[in-house]
């Protein structure tokens, strides 16, 4: 997303859709697609309708009852089976099969619980290291369907991205076809976003800003901190901090006539809301951002869930990130809205 301040005319990069893989399809414009004037969740797509706080959802998902113990055991068994006898397991196919079961769950607390279980169980550092070894093993099985399935995704450069604040690497992608649990999204999403709208992705995020990731020059943050541009996503997601620590802030897009926001990083700045990540853009609208929650801490082992209509940004310590970046495991749902 691109934003600018009318007083200075400065154009500022704001990723309203942070998934960098959108770049490959930004020129496939469909004039029939309707762009929202603000982030929203479609009717029936609110899994946790009474939860409006990142602090609350973090504490909620850290509770044991928000993990499906049977599913956790199945994931742990997958890891142990491969450790004991690698030839007995098809790692990519088996994990994809587990994701398919979760995709059949409609948008609900139960779906969130299952998504949280995946990132909590696989996000344990030793478990994730083992799973990465398993995926590497899958790609070496010459001539097998397992090799074809894993390499087709793991070596698809469109699903691996690096921008100023974060590196994103695909681990497992679900099948493309909708399931009984798939919530139908905005028409035209697949064509516009360049990926099947019903598929889910399990990815790793490495929060290691580059020297060019300077953020907005008008952002007031402590020296050395790096703040990515605020954005929303076309999907819901669950995530866990595997290593390190980061902070997130949550924002609301204000309406004309609302009181001028005073707290947070952006205060009274006026921005331009556009679709996608890079130009050309098909939607433009003026907005301001009011801070709902400022700099919520997420430590190693914390997990959380975020719906598609939450505007947020991530803040990391730039000096620490140079050698010990925060790492998060990220499970995204089907596309729901045009961001």
Structure summary:
The protein has helices spanning 54-61, 69-84, 91-103, 109-122, 125-139, 145-154, 189-193, 318-323; strands at 2-4, 11-13, 160-162, 167-173, 201-207, 225-227, 237-243, 245-253, 271-274, 284-287, 289-299, 303-306, 311-317, 326-332.
What features would you describe in this structure?
The N terminus is likely disordered. The chain starts with a strand and ends in a 7-residue tail after the last strand. α2 packs across α5. The chain has one domain: Sandwich (Jelly Rolls). The chain is globular. It is built from eight helices and 14 strands. The strands form four sheets. Strands 3-4-5-14-7-12 form a six-stranded antiparallel β-sheet. The protein has 339 residues and is of the alpha+beta class.
């Amino acid at each position: 997303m691109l934003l600018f301040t009318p007083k200075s005319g400065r154009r500022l990069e704001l990723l309203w859709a942070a998934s960098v893989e959108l770049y490959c399809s930004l020129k496939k414009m469909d004039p029939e697609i309707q762009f929202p004037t603000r982030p929203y969740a479609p009717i029936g797509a609110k899994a946790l309708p009474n939860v409006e706080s990142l602090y609350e959802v973090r504490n909620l998902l850290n509770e044991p009852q928000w993990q499906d113990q049977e599913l956790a055991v199945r994931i742990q068994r997958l890891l142990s089976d491969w450790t004991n006898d690698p030839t007995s397991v098809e790692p990519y196919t088996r994990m994809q099969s587990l994701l398919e079961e979760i995709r059949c769950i409609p948008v609900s607390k139960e779906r969130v619980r299952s998504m949280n279980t995946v990132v909590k169980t696989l996000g344990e550092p030793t478990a994730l290291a083992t799973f990465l070894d398993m995926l590497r093993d899958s790609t070496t099985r010459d001539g097998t369907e397992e090799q074809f399935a894993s390499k087709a995704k793991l070596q698809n450069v469109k699903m691996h991205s690096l921008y100023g604040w974060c590196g994103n690497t695909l681990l497992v992608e679900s099948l493309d076809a909708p399931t009984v649990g798939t919530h139908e999204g905005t028409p035209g999403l697949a064509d516009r976003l360049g990926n099947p709208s019903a598929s889910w992705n399990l990815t790793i995020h490495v929060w290691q800003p580059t020297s060019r990731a300077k953020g907005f020059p008008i952002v007031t943050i402590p020296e050395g901190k790096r703040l990515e541009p605020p954005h929303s996503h076309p999907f819901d997601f669950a995530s866990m901090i595997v290593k390190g620590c980061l902070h997130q802030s949550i924002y609301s897009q204000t309406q004309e006539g609302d009181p001028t926001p005073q707290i947070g990083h952006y205060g009274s700045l006026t921005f331009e809301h556009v679709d996608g990540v890079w130009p050309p853009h098909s939607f433009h609208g003026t907005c301001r951002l009011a801070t709902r929650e400022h700099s919520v801490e997420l430590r190693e082992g914390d997990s959380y869930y975020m719906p598609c209509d939450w505007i947020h940004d991530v803040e990391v310590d730039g000096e620490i990130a140079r050698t010990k970046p925060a790492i998060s495991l990220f499970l995204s749902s089907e596309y729901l809205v045009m961001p």
